[in-house]
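A protein record in our archive is deliberately plain, so that people and models can read it alike. The tokens are whole numbers drawn from a learned vocabulary of local backbone shapes. For reference, a complete record is included directly beneath this paragraph.
>
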Amino acid sequence: MAGFLRALCYSQVLVFLLSITCSAAKEFLVGGKTNAWKIPSSQSDSLNKWAESSRFLVGDSLVWTYDKEKDSVLKVRREAYISCNTSDAIEEYNGGNTKVTLDKSGPHYFISGAEGHCEKGQKLIVVVLSQRHRLVGVSPAPSPSEVEGPAVAPTSDASSFKAGYLVALGVLVGFMWM
């Protein structure tokens, strides 16, 4: 009986710790560096390449730094993203230091508000996962008809999380049999 109570106590602590580590929202500097919001020098320098290597969850934030005298960030719908239509923005940010909280799952589209910049590749698609995907480890890749460009590649974070969870579960089961 003492072994069972000890395992129950450990499992409650484990669940508490997992809930803390799994619910913290992150802040992402767009492009991974200051002043990355610019016309890319090549396709490999595209901000979408950076976004593909990141995992975004509901509640996370994107932070842009740019020269507010020369540029802005527009949150747009898919159609405006594809056509680089700057006149139909959902939101317009022009302060030079922009923070946008990702409040729902699915694709989020951003383009430059500076004339001609979007057409030259200064745009970004961020695919946001729901909180349930953090524990499951599944990355829903958007269909080609949903977005232009490559799908978001899964990262190893979910695999290592699952492996750690299974090890901890094994330890707890071992305590139960003591």
Observations:
- The chain is about 35% helix and 20% strand.
- The CA atoms of residues 67 and 123 lie 16 Å apart.
- The two ends are 9 Å apart (CA to CA).
- Helices lie at 2-22, 47-52, 78-83, 132-136, 157-176.
